[in-house]
Amino acid sequence: MFWNAFCGPGAGWWPLHGPFFLLVIGLVVVFGLSRLFTVRQETRLGAAVDPALETLRQRYANGEIGEDDYQQRKENLK
């Protein structure tokens, strides 16, 4: 018979430590892997941005071209 200061006789809550910590470690690994693949996908999508369209956006943001001109050039680029 086991004696435990917290629960009295019996194994108490100690046998739950192993499965609990394995669950926590598994969740951390799954979260880490999902975060890693999300960051890689965002990077891949960010690299696919057209430099000409980005320049057009910058010119519009700086006020060098108007909205009508921006929309027309944007449609031409697509």
Structure notes:
With 78 residues, the protein is mainly alpha-helical. It has a domain of 31 residues. Helices cover 68% and strands 5% of the residues. It has three helices and two strands, in the order ββααα. The protein has a two-stranded antiparallel ribbon with strand order 1-2. Helix 2 packs antiparallel against helix 3. It is rod-shaped, with a radius of gyration of 29 Å. The protein starts with a strand and ends with a helix. The mean pLDDT is 77.
**SSE pattern:** EEHHH
Tell me the total number of β-strands: 2
The helix fraction, in percent, is 55-70%
Task: Return residue spans where pLDDT drops below 50 for at least 5 consecutive residues.
Answer: none
Query: First CA to last CA: what distance?
Result: 76 Å
Which shape, going by the Cα principal axes? rod-shaped
Sheet/helix structural class: mainly alpha
Output the number of helix runs: 3
Query: What fraction of residues sit in β-strands?
Result: 5-15%
Give the strand order, joined by hyphens, for the main sheet.
1-2
Give a short account of the largest sheet.
Answer: 2 strands, antiparallel
Q: Average pLDDT, to the nearest integer?
A: 77
Tell me the Rg in angstroms.
29 Å
Question: Can I get a quick summary?
Answer:
With 78 residues, the protein is mainly alpha-helical. The chain contains three helices and two strands. Helix 2 (51-61) runs antiparallel to helix 3 (67-77).
